[in-house]
Amino acid sequence: MSDTYVLVHGAWHTGAEMAAVADGLRAAGHTVHCPTVAGNNPGDNRASTGLDDAIASVVRFIEGQDLTQVRLVGHSYGGMVISGVADRIAARLRRLVYINAFVPLDGESLNDMVPPHYVAMFDAIAGANSNAVTLPFEIWREAFINDADLPLARAAYDKLNPHPYRTFTDKIQLKQPLAALALGKSYVNCQQDTALPHSLPWHPRLSERLGLFRLVECPGSHEMFFSNPQRLAQAILEAGRD
Amino acid sequence: MSDTYVLVHGAWHTGAEMAAVADGLRAAGHTVHCPTVAGNNPGDNRASTGLDDAIASVVRFIEGQDLTQVRLVGHSYGGMVISGVADRIAARLRRLVYINAFVPLDGESLNDMVPPHYVAMFDAIAGANSNAVTLPFEIWREAFINDADLPLARAAYDKLNPHPYRTFTDKIQLKQPLAALALGKSYVNCQQDTALPHSLPWHPRLSERLGLFRLVECPGSHEMFFSNPQRLAQAILEAGRD
Amino acid sequence: MSDTYVLVHGAWHTGAEMAAVADGLRAAGHTVHCPTVAGNNPGDNRASTGLDDAIASVVRFIEGQDLTQVRLVGHSYGGMVISGVADRIAARLRRLVYINAFVPLDGESLNDMVPPHYVAMFDAIAGANSNAVTLPFEIWREAFINDADLPLARAAYDKLNPHPYRTFTDKIQLKQPLAALALGKSYVNCQQDTALPHSLPWHPRLSERLGLFRLVECPGSHEMFFSNPQRLAQAILEAGRD
């Protein structure tokens, strides 16, 4: 049975970086789309793109392709996006799959779920870069892709693009709590992911906001899309299979 | 060296569902018994069976078979049962092995260790079913057997039986804390078990009530008896081997 | 590329017990030293050796061999030692690797990071043994080497030596917080390590004191140097590779 997956990338990424995982899902017989969210395309205006623009771009993609029964997968910042999409077009979706992704409450921004020292650093970087935020390599290497060797960590870093900071500071509007949506929900927790510190973790702190949800865990860092895409694809299949 | 194991099933189960794990232990040379606890046999009275009846039925089984040096293993609700059995006939036991199982304090019920929203749901179901409690399929599929595919989740669900709710609400009587019992104690934690939410977890919240204990962990859900009995048998062997 | 590793053992151990892991690192092409810390050599005075003596002995070793660009690895109590060494000769080091090891704040002793019931037990044992502390076998078997079988647990226990208790009670002096040191830092967390209870854990409680650090995890107990040295060597390689 062929399922339809839409993979929504995290901050600093585009759909292109989802390709290896998408191929893993396709090898299992599924149809996979990897749109690039508004704000992360090469020519997009980093200063003006906000969270609503990002959400609207994925809504447009799903409606434009007339997709239904979608397994909508969000990674990291992508959790903000898929939460907004689910709030707007739930009828086209079958299940939400969060991969170490933000699960917002109504009125929350991404920055509201992040340790203060990260917010201060993001503020400073965005302030000096026309409201585009980047990630210092040292943090990327140690806390985001700790399971890769140095050459892979560098090669992956070179693919990142400056991220529109308004999508981190805009408050999301949700008509109802995500737990109340009549959709399946899954949370994939990559166990060595320290992009958020384990004292303020992805799971169970954010995952349990989904109410009843299916937990799938796998060994790996925040950036298994680079460091172990086959294993991550397996986890997504277990998260999304029904 | 052949050890003697007695496996005590969880709520809604019978000894029959322990068979695959028991076979794994037998393949390692051990003797394994899988009694069905009072209240879960086909003809048992779900309305009247209480926790003392459940405990007494396993005491009778061990005494009736004249078993000694028993590795007494309890899964989930079975932790209530083996805790009571240990309090009554410790001299026949060698070691207690809890598998994501309840570890009560004197005077506690199972429901005292469970999130309030589960207790409210159990109350409502039991109130409408002559004090027998069942588990909605959606909760079973997402939170109890998250590591299985849907056909296995359904097949396993079809084997469950209505559970006597008094065994969840009765307070256990213990002559001394379990940590004070002069027996070996082990706790097997199946790592993706979300039958209890990870914010109110089996381990270390309940496991550490055992005092000095041996931790064994394995990947899997609350229902590895169905989803991965070979791996669970290996964990039990490591938990019980001395 | 050949890196230089110095492995600093935990309490009750000597450098000899690091040999199997050191061989695993050497097989990957690296140079590995396993000095025995002052206080744990056969003839050392257990009553008088303090934490400063222990730290100074490893400083002397590194300076005496004129080692530079050192990956300095500490296990358990060895975390106290490598923290002091890093504070004194950071210029000779490339990266600190803690393996379920203590990460002290300035003015803290090892005992300050340990549950009160362990401190009380240590006090009693050292009080009766000329200020040398030993570990009861039952605790070793259940909480330190829970992943081994009984013969291995016994054989490993027989290699332990009485430990100078002043190294647990002396407060460390640090010129600056470890997080402020301009060195790479990694933390290897052996996931079934219950030498510290999981309610008062190694990670993230102590690891996050390092500030930005690289997390590497592997399945195993506190004593993987005995129970699974190959797997631990792999984790150290991932922790130390750049």
TrEMBL record, chains A, B, C:
It comes from the Bacteria. Residues 6-235 form the AB hydrolase-1 domain. The keyword Ribonucleoprotein does not apply. The keyword Manganese does not apply. Signal peptide: none annotated. Pfam families: Abhydrolase_6. GO terms for molecular function: hydrolase activity. Keywords: Hydrolase. InterPro entries: AB_hydrolase_1 (IPR000073), AB_hydrolase_fold (IPR029058), Sec-Metab_Biosynth_Hydrolase (IPR052897). This is Alpha/beta hydrolase. It comes from Acidovorax cavernicola.
